[in-house]
Amino acid sequence: MAADTGDGEAGARRADAAAAPGEAREPAVDESELDRICLHNLLSASADNIYFKDRDSNFLRASASAAAYTGAKDPATMIGRPASAYFTEEQAAATVEIEQMIMRTGTAVTDHEESHMRSPTGDEVCLSTSKQPLRDFDGRIIGTFGISRDITARKNAESELVARTAELDRVGRELRMLIDTSPDPMSRFDRELRCSYANPAAAELTGLSLDAILGHTIGEMGFSAQFTRDWDDALREVLETGAGVERELSLLAGGREIFLNTRFVPEVTEEEGRVRSILTVSRDLTERRRIEQALAERAVRDPLTGLPNRTLLVSRIKQAIELDADRGRLALLFLDLDRFKLVNDGLGHAVGDELLTAVAGRLRQAVRRGDLVARFGGDEFVVLCENLEDQREAAVVAEHVCQSLTPPFSCAGKQVHMSASIGIALSEGRSSTADSLLRDADAAMYEAKASESATGGYRFFAPAARKTVVRRVDLEHELRRAGEQSEFELVYQPVVELADGRVTGAEALIRWRHPERGLLPPAEFIGIAEDSGLVIPIGRWALETACRQLAEWDRAQPTGRRLNMAVNLSPRQLSHDPDLVDAVANALSRNALPSSRLCLEVTETAVHRASPLARSSLETLPAAGVQFALDDYGTGFSSLAHLRDVPVAALKVDRLFVAGLGARGDDAIVVAVITLAHALGMKVVAEGVETAQQRARLLELGCDYGQGFLFSLPLEPEAFSSLLDDPAGACLNP
Ligand code: C2E
Ligand code: CA
Ligand code: CA
After folding, report:
1. Which ligand is nearest to the CA of 493?
2. Of all atoms in ligand 1, which is nearest to the CA of residue 689?
3. Which residues lie below 8 Å from residue 231, measured CB to CB, with a gap of 6+?
4. Å from CA of 507 to ligand 1 middle
5. pLDDT per residue over 329-386, tens digit each?
6. Fewer CB atoms < 10 Å away: N or C end of the chain?
7. The pLDDT of residue 103 is above 90
8. Atom of ligand 1 nearest to the CA of 493
C-alpha cells in the first residue's frame, strides 16, 4: 500500500515532473526515477513520521508510519485532510499555529516537543518534531513538511530518572537531617582511622569542636588509651573482615564516665566491594547504666541506712567462708536493739527511722576497718568480721559496738538511750554455712537478751549448747516425775503500793526442788515445760496452790487486808488449755475466793498471737471478774497502739526499763507507757525495783505499784505469813 502513495488518485496532483515510473529492473539506476524511488522508500519505510502539508495545513503526503500513528491506516486517505481529522481540536490548533508561523517567517522549528499526543491506542506519547517550510524550486513557500519522532520511551526513562534523582535527593536530605538531629552520636572514619564526619550529637557527647574531631584519629582527640585502643581495634576489624561489629565502650568526657554501645558499619565501594569507610552509630548508655547500677545497688542496700541488706550480707558471708578456708578466723555478730519497738511506737516511726540511721552510723564507726555492717531487718544488724587474730578480737568488736551505743541518741529533740544484745558465732571452717552462722549468732543473741544484764551485752554461741538437746530430753522426763513427786514449790513476792509501801498482793513464782541439783529457778525448766506441754498441768498446780495459799492467809488474818494473788500463765496455757476457764473457776470456788482477788499474768506476745481459744479465755475470764495483767511489758513485739485492744487491768513494766530509769535516763518510754496505760484505765506495776531512786522516779511518773528486791525478795509461804503478821512489815517502805 505504501508503494501506491505516490501513484494513487493523488498521482494526478503530483507537482514535480522529476519522478518517473520505475519499471526498470536493471541493476543500473534509472536516474529519472531516482527522486520518486527515494521519496517512496522514505515515506514507506521511515520509522519517524514524515509528512508534507499545504499552506492550509492539509496533508499533501504522509509516511506509512505517520498513517499508523494517526490511525489512518492508509497514508493515501490522509491527503487533503487537516490535522483536526486525527488529533484533538486543541492539538490540531497548536499544529496549525506553528505551521502558519513557519510559513510566515520562513524559519524552521527543530526538536519541538509535542507531548500528550494521543495515538489511536490511547497511549500518551511524546513526539520530537522538526518542521520546515516546504518550498518549490523557485523558493516559494507552498506549505510545510515535518518529521516527528516518538520519544515517549526516552522521555519516560528521563522523567523516571529525574524522579529517582529527586527521590534520592530527598532521602539523602532526610537522612542527613536525621543524622544531624539524631540524639545518637554518629561518625564516619576513613581507612586511616581518621574521622571524616561527626554529627552534632557526637560533638556534644565528646565535648569537642568539629575542628578537633574532623581529620583526626581517636587518639589524637585526646581520649584515654583504653578507649582509643578499643575504638581503633573495632575499626581495624571492620576494615579487615568487611563485616560490621558492635562494641560496648566507655570513655571519659567532660569529667564524667560515658558508656556507649557502638555499631561499626562498613561502607563498601560499589565497584570493588572494598571497605571505603566505616560509619559508627553509638547509643549513649550512661543513663541506663546509672539506673541499672542504682537498681542493683538498691537490690543489695537497705534504703534507710544505706547499709548492705540481707541479700548482700549472705553473699558476703559465703565469700568470706570461702576465703577463710579452714582457718576459722571468721565471726558473725548478730545485733538486736533492745526495746526498739517501744521507741518506734512510742515516739513515732520517723524517730524510729532516724534512730536506726544513727545506730547504723555508730556501728560503722565502731567496727574494725574492713568489717561489714549489714542491716538484717527491723532493728537487727549483723557485723561480719574476717581475719580475726583470735576469738577475743570478736569480743572486742562486740564491746566497741556496745560502747558506741551508750551515749544517748538525740532524735526529734529527745534523748533516747539504746542498747543492743549481741550474739557472736565463730566459723568452724568449711563446715560452716551462711545459714548456720546466722542461726548460731541469732541464738546467741537471744541468750544475751535473756541474760540478766539490763544494758544489753554479748554472748558467744556455745557449740556445747547443742548438747543441751540431749539434756532437754532427760529434763523432760525429770519434769514429769517432778509433777508426780510434788517437787514444785511456790514462792511469793510482795507487790506494794508505791506511794506508801503497803503490801497489796503477791506474785506466785514457781521453783523446782530438784533432788540432785537443788532449788531451780523457772528459767531452768519453764521453757521445756512449755515446749513439752507439761506447763499445762504444772500451771494448774500453781494456780490451785496459789489460791489455796491466799485463802490460808485470809483465814490467818480474819480482820487483815485482803491481798490479791498474781499467778503467771504461760502462753501455752492460754492457747492450748481448753479447760483453763474451768480450772480458774474451780480454784477460786474451792477456796471460796472472789474472782477479783486473782490476777493472771500473761505476756504481750501471748496476747497478740492469741489463738481463738486464748481469745475466748481472754474475754470470758475478765467477764467473770478475773483480772489480767500484761507481764514483762516492753520486751515483746507488741506496740503501744495495740494496748487498747487488750482486756487487761494492769501493765507490768519490765525490769529492764526500771533498771534504765534515773541512771540511764530512759524515761521517755516509761512516761509513754504509764500515760497510755492510765488513759486506758489500766494500773501500772513496775517490776524489779531495786533502788530508792528508781522508786522515787516511778512515783514521780505516776506509777501505781512496785515489786522488787527493794521491797522484798520472793518469799517462802511462811516468811510471807510472818511479814503479814508483823504490823510494820506489812508496809514495805524503806
Ligand atoms: P516474771 O513474771 O517477770 O517474774 C518476776 C521475776 O523477777 C522473778 O524471777 C523474780 O524473782 C524476779 N525479780 C523480782 N524482783 C526483782 C528485782 O528487784 N531484781 C531482779 N533482777 N529480779 C527480780 P523468777 O522467779 O526467776 O521467775 C522468772 C520468770 O519465770 C517469771 O518472770 C515468770 O515469767 C516465770 N514464772 C515464774 N513462775 C511461774 C509459773 O508459776 N508459771 C509460769 N508459766 N511461769 C512462771
Ligand atoms: Ca510475772
Ligand atoms: Ca515480768
Report:
1. 1
2. 18
3. 218, 223, 249, 262
4. 9
5. 899 999 999 888 888 888 888 889 999 999 999 999 999 998 999 999 999 999 999 9
6. C
7. yes
8. 14
User: Among 703, 694, 699, 709, which residue's Cα sits nearest to residue 664?
Assistant: 694
Output the CA 656–ligand 1 centroid distance in Å: 13
Cβ–Cβ < 8 Å for 218, 233: no
C-alpha cell at 599: 490476777
3-state SS, 334-397, equals: EEEECCHHHHHHHHCHHHHHHHHHHHHHHHHHHCCCCCEEEEEECCEEEEEECCCCCHHHHHHH
The pTM for the full model equals: 0.47
Helical ranges in 592-682 per DSSP H: 604-608, 612-623, 655-660, 667-679
Residue of 489, 568, 602, 720 with the most ligand 1 atoms within 8 Å of its CB, for mutation? 568
Residue 110 is given by DSSP the state E
Measured in residues, the chain has a length of 734
629 alpha carbon, closest ligand: 2
| pLDDT for the residue numbered 511 | 97
What percent of the chain is predicted at pLDDT more than 70? Answer: 89
Instruction: Give the ligand 1 atom nearest the CA of 569.
Output: 44
**Residue-wise over 550-589: b if at least 16 C-beta within 10 A, else e?**
bbebbeeeeeeeebbbbbbbbbbbbbebeebbebbbebbe
Please identify, by atom number, the ligand 1 atom nearest to the C-alpha of residue 573: 44
CA distances from 677 to 459, 495, 607, 615 (A): 34, 18, 16, 21
Measure 673 CA to ligand 2 centroid, in angstroms. Answer: 18
Atom 15 of ligand 1 has which residue's CA nearest to it? 708
Could you tell me the distance, in angstroms and rounded to a whole number, from the CA of residue 657 to the centre of ligand 2?
15
Identify the residue whose cell numbers are 491466799: 550
The answer to whether the beta carbons of residues 375 and 307 sit under 8 Å apart is: yes
The sign of the dihedral angle between the CA atoms of 152, 155, 157, 163 is negative
Alpha helices in 49-88 (DSSP H): 64-70
Neighbours of 120 (CB within 10 A): 12
Residues with CB under 6 A from ligand 1: 493, 508-510, 521-523, 526, 535, 539, 542, 568, 570, 601, 631-632, 655, 687-690, 707-709, 714
How far away, in angstroms, is 633 Cα from ligand 3 center?
A: 7
For the ranges 12-26, 81-95, 152-166, 711-725, the lowest mean pLDDT is seen at: 12-26
Best probe residue, ligand 1, of 509, 549, 567, 713 (max atoms within 8 Å of C-beta): 509
Q: CA 441, CA 489: separation in Å to the nearest integer?
A: 35
Give the pairing type, strands 245-253 and 275-284: unpaired
Q: What is the DSSP letter of 183?
A: S
The residue that leads in pLDDT, 431 or 602, is: 602
Longest dimension (CA), the chain: 177
Q: Which amino acid is at 215?
A: G
Looking at the CA of 653, which ligand is closest? 3
Backbone angles phi, psi at 232, to 5 degrees: -65, -35
529 within 8 A of 521, measured Cβ to Cβ: no
**Which residue is closest in CA terms to ligand 1's atom 27?**
522
Q: How far is the CA of 509 from the centre of ligand 1 (A)?
A: 6
Shortest CA distance to 534 belongs to which of 584, 469, 484? 484
Residue 202 to residue 182: CA distance in whole angstroms: 9
Q: Which position has the higher pLDDT, 166 or 357?
A: 357
Q: Which atom of ligand 1 is nearest to the CA of 714?
A: 11
pLDDT tens digits along 277-320:
998 989 888 888 888 777 777 778 899 999 999 989 999 999 89
